[in-house]
Amino acid sequence: MNIEQVATNFTYEQLASALYLKGELDGFPKVTDKTKWREPVMADKLGHIAHEKISAGAGKDEYGSDAFDPSKEKYAEYKSQAIVEKQLNNLFERSRGKRNYVPLKVTGVYNGAYKQEALDAYKDVDHYFGVFYKEQCVLVINPNTDEVMRQLEYNNANRKEGKTTNLNTVTIDLKDEMLYTVAYKNEEFYIDNIEE
User: Fold this and answer.
1) What is the pLDDT of residues 117-141, one digit of tens each?
2) 126/136 Cα distance (integer angstroms)
3) pTM value?
4) CA-CA distance, 53 to 28, in Å (whole number)?
């Protein structure tokens, strides 16, 4: 049975239940909570080991991270965003007459990153932003930690008193290649879609 047959033959509940069971079998309880299931996907692409729990509590070594990179012996924080069809124009900077579409801006939302303890934890980890299209990982970038921290600290300094401590957003414009490296690129996806 191919993926299209699976999608047409099963309900959302059955598919979600199967994903939940797959997570349990692989040691990831509650993998369907939020976008936790994307973390083992990104870890697999990067050769990392994803943490089993959604988040580690303050004071733990892995606080402020979603995975461990055994090659660097360093923790990694993952952010992901789903893009829709029209954003492929930006991802591929397709032609639109005399000009091309502007490059995609990849965002990572850091909840709780207005607390100094969280900001301190994020200084010591690598950051990875995944781009998913139809829930397939098509790109993972590794923004410079200095740039991530610059944006988080700027946002924190400019947060109005009493406003939420969630939604501290870092934005990396793919045209600013000096701010990131490409950690993973789904070459087959790019070949199949770049010219459309």
Assistant:
1) 888 889 999 999 999 998 899 999 9
2) 22
3) 0.87
4) 7
